[in-house]
## 1
Amino acid sequence: MVTTTSSIEKLHFDHRLWMNELSFFSDELRIYERRLEDLVNKNNETKVLSLLEQFQNQFIRQREVLEELHHNIKVHEQKIGEALRRGEEAPLDPNFHDYMKGEMESYRNIYRDLKRKFYSFLARYL
């Protein structure tokens, strides 16, 4: 596969965009986790505490997926950089890139839904 500078730049741009998105999601999750801590201290109803625990578990899982996505993007970016430094053809795997596009889209959708549910919970129990 012949790689062009423009395809490498496009791939690098996508990686940077995805990494920025993941960084934003990570910051947002940190805010939500702090919010959960505040709510636990303010509310001791069993039903609410159960819901808070469910959100906590979901936030933990989202952070795990986020870290996995971050790792996969970073590894791919490193492979491209190493190949370019050696003067080799950059290992542009269109299947991997398409896979990562799909994973990012899936993560966005799941995260968006979780966020919507969390805000609905806050509006209901605050």
## 2
Amino acid sequence: MSGSETALDALERSLTRLAAAVGLLERAAERRMRHDEARSNAEEEFALMQDDRSRLAVELDAALDRSRALEAASAEAGERLIRAAQTIGRILERMEPPAD
């Protein structure tokens, strides 16, 4: 009978070790799933940030183009105002009688 008890004891010890190994494997699988999920979330956030960066770059380029166009229009308007003021000055000179 002692031979069967040692066989049962050995079987119980093996089953205990197996249950412990399965528990470790389950915990490792859970950690891996959490890690993979966190990595997936980080990759998703990174992709969103890249999309935002691209969109902002396009918007910045458009704003710079508008700024350059406004600067050119402002310079042209300034030149036209100067010419208009000069023309008005010449007209006024012609209208005023010379002072003797």
## 3
Amino acid sequence: MSSKSIASENLLDELQSALAHGTVARRVETLRRVTDLFVNGAVDFSDEQITLFDDVFQCLMMHIETSARALLASRLAPIDTAPPRTIRTLAFDDVIEIAGPVLSKSERLDDEILIETARSKSQAHLMAISTRRVLSGAVTDVLVLRGNDEVIQNTVNNPGAEFTERGFTRLVSRAEGDDNLATCVGLRPTLPRHLYLKLLAKASATVRARLEAADPQHAGEVPDAVHEVTRRARTSRAAMSQQTAIAHALVKSLFEDGRLDEHQVASFAEGGKFDETNASIAALANVPVAVAESMMVETRAEGVMILAKVSGMSWSTVKAIINMRDELMGGEPADIAACKETYERLRPSTAQQVLRFHRMQQSAAPAA
């Protein structure tokens, strides 16, 4: 019999005695010795042995003080093979000194546990989760929804954090009036382009200067005027992602081959593809993509309707574009009935005049 097996059997005998007759101090000492035994042999233990340790830790944790549980958490948190039920128990502890080390470091915690904790525990617990090496979009969704300013900032600054489009939408809304958060969100490489444009359109001069400084090769491409912001920002590395460039190339190819029509635009819109929809409507309206972009991200839906009327689109396609825009931008949804009435009254000649005005604004902005 190995010395490790003998030590384990002796310790289990001691455990039974400590639980049955021992003082708190003796139980704490027993916990320390069990923890030492596990930490020193964690790499070699089988699943069956780890399950045994799980049972032992569960028994001891019920009879020890907070400081001893906190020490146990800090020792087990970095170990990838730590007993899973013990780690879960520690993670759900209301005392942050106990839960914190496990929530921030333990690889034993899956998304389900992290999400459950983030939905029900304190801001201190959320802060601990926000520091993890890797955070999935499902977890950051909850952090963005429930977290205070400090938690949000920490999550956005975490390079290992992923965000869903819903999470990014909430962040962009939350960043309004918060220059530090707006800058951090704007610098996230996976921020969808339509949300980048929305962020930029509402950004202060300070935020635009910071984004400009972060991309010195394109300094001066984030000026003050909102329309000029959306026009010029499209050439910035931070805004023009590879995905956007591919979408624009696809639309250009369809247009040059004569295959870009209203049905294709409606298909893009119904699929929630902002870049493809925007580039398509720009091509059909015969305006630069940047002009269409500035009109697409306006608060009201008139810009979309003007572009669509010039392109000769039916109301069903316009409705699909407006619905896509409302869903992606996460703002107050448009009054569809009122939009339909406006679109049907809008004359193509009037739409052309308004569009010429937009193009003049874009051309005049650099000179101004």
